[in-house]
Design a protein that fits this description.
By secondary structure, this protein is of the alpha/beta class. The chain folds into 2 domains: 127 residues, 3-Layer(aba) Sandwich (Rossmann fold), CATH 3.40.50; 252 residues, no CATH class. The chain has 18 helices and 14 strands. The radius of gyration is 22 Å and the shape is globular.
Length: 390
């Protein structure tokens, strides 16, 4: 099993909070991580998979059952299957607080971020911490001896990344995409047509990293513009798509105001586009933007919650692929180049000057660090991830 950096984060949050919600797409490794935690948790643990009828039956009288597990860590997997449990958890947590028990009681796993956060925030406000669990990142893959090109091609879902060959990996991703459309979309959004969501998902893959033109997509799919916003919102909620917002400060310049959209996991992107091998990918028009999305997702994950990600683009072409802002001030500018001899464009320098950013990096597939023009520095993805994680 590949060691996940999230394990220590979850342990720490459980020691500080009575309940932790672990959010992430299906098959990302939430259950594996939870079982590893439960295996050696002090006082023991109980694991319930709420997709199993037998485990759901245990919660017919949830209050009595959960109170009987006093002193144990209770793991509730696929918690969206039992939304009524949140109110019961609140009462148990509050009673335990009165008894001096303030941490490590419940670990809740789920796939739909907004729905779960809404339900839990309404009833568990001040009692719960949230952790977003992404697919395997470049640091975790490198620690397991996995080349970044392999991670980029296959994506970070463990079953895809560790498949015996590229064909089996692509087959797994095809099945993953199909299961989301046939099972999860109807479950989380029963009124939305799964077939249309699938067509939209593929269209977004073909337009990876482009500024979103909702009107054009709506016209192609034959639906209203607000409907496209709702469909994309579902894919964002399921953590399958990222909407990267434009920087919107007041500089007296005409700025692009629409978000960029990325399929978050590069392997799922390549599955939607039927790209099986690295050669297939390198010869496809999406190659550069696919690498950009792969880097951006890793860098945002490494930057953590303290830094807010944006992109920056003016109507006259000054552009930064990724801006990291902290305390309301843009601090780090990142350009991404799929080239061994990267060179930042003049527009990158102009944009950095607009925002008064001194830390300027150009991420490229190599490993050496060296200075570039316009005050930028070439750096490998792994090195910048390590730098941002410190």
């Amino acid at each position: 099993m590949i060691s996940r950096q999230f394990e220590s984060t979850v342990r720490q949050k459980l020691l500080q909070n009575p309940a932790v919600v672990l959010l992430g797409p299906r098959q990302v490794g939430k259950t594996t991580l939870a079982r590893a935690l439960a295996k050696d948790w002090p006082g023991g643990a109980v694991y319930l998979d709420l997709e199993r009828p037998a485990d759901r039956l245990r919660l017919d009288d949830a209050d009595s059952y959960l109170r009987a597990q006093q002193g144990k860590l209770v793991v509730l997997d696929e918690i969206h299957r039992a939304p009524g449990v949140f109110e019961i958890l609140r009462g148990i947590i509050d009673d335990n607080r009165q008894a001096g028990i303030r941490s490590g009681q419940f670990l809740l796993l789920g796939s739909a971020a907004l729905d779960l956060m809404r339900q839990s925030s309404e009833t568990l406000a001040g009692r719960v911490a949230y952790i977003d669990m992404a697919p395997l990142n470049t640091g975790e893959a490198a620690a397991a001896g996995i080349d970044d090109n392999n991670l980029w091609l296959r994506g970070g879902f463990p079953d895809s990344l560790l498949a015996a060959n590229d064909t089996q990996s692509l087959d797994w991703r095809r099945d993953f995409i199909r299961s989301y459309l046939e099972r999860d979309v109807p479950m989380f959004a029963p009124r939305l047509p799964a077939e249309t969501i699938g067509r939209l998902w593929t269209m977004l893959a073909h337009n990876q990293g482009c500024v979103l033109n909702q009107a054009r997509i709506a016209s192609a799919l034959g639906v209203a513009n607000p409907t496209i916003d709702r469909y994309i919102g579902l894919l964002v909620d399921l953590q399958l798509v990222r909407r990267l917002r434009p920087w919107g400060g007041n500089l007296g310049k005409r700025l692009v105001k629409s978000p960029k959209v990325y399929v978050r996991d590069s392997g799922i992107l390549h599955g939607l586009l039927e790209l099986e091998t690295l050669n297939d990918l390198l010869g496809h028009p999406v190659c550069g933007l696919s690498y950009e999305g792969h880097c951006i997702d890793n860098l945002i994950q490494a930057a953590g919650n303290r830094r807010v990600p944006f992109f920056y683009r003016t109507q006259v072409g000054a552009e930064i692929d990724l801006v990291l802002e902290q305390g309301g001030k843009p601090e780090i500018a990142i350009e991404i180049k799929r080239a061994m001899a990267p060179s930042p464009e003049r527009g990158f320098a102009v944009a950095c000057d607009d925002l008064q950013i001194e830390q300027r990096y150009v991420v490229y597939p190599g490993t050496e660090r060296f200075p570039l023009r316009h005050g930028a520095q070439a750096i490998g993805l792994g090195d910048l991830v390590a730098l941002l994680s410190q």
